[in-house]
Amino acid sequence: MSEKAFLAFFVRPACISAYPFSNSSLNSASDNVLMSTGLQKALDLLPEIQREVVILRYYHDLKVKDIATITGVGVSTVQSRIYQGLRKLEKVLEREEFL
Fold this sequence. Notes:
Elements: H1 3-10, H2 12-17, H3 29-44, H4 48-59, H5 64-71, H6 75-94
Helix pairs in contact: 1-5, 4-6, 5-6
């Protein structure tokens, strides 16, 4: 297990509850705040097991194998949860209130 994954294992609840996103490619600070808020709201709508793996993978940049170790499930389960979570995020973000 990598050092990053090892640390994430011990601070797992904090890793999941604190996910302030930013996108440096946005033009203004206000756009950045709106994007962060919208993405956080969309993530909050995911089931916890999907939200957890999506955050660990894409915000904390952990490998699927490390996420499997941290969460105590198999690699294929993590991959499935990531896939399902991303599909749900896509549907949520396509809704009018997120545009």
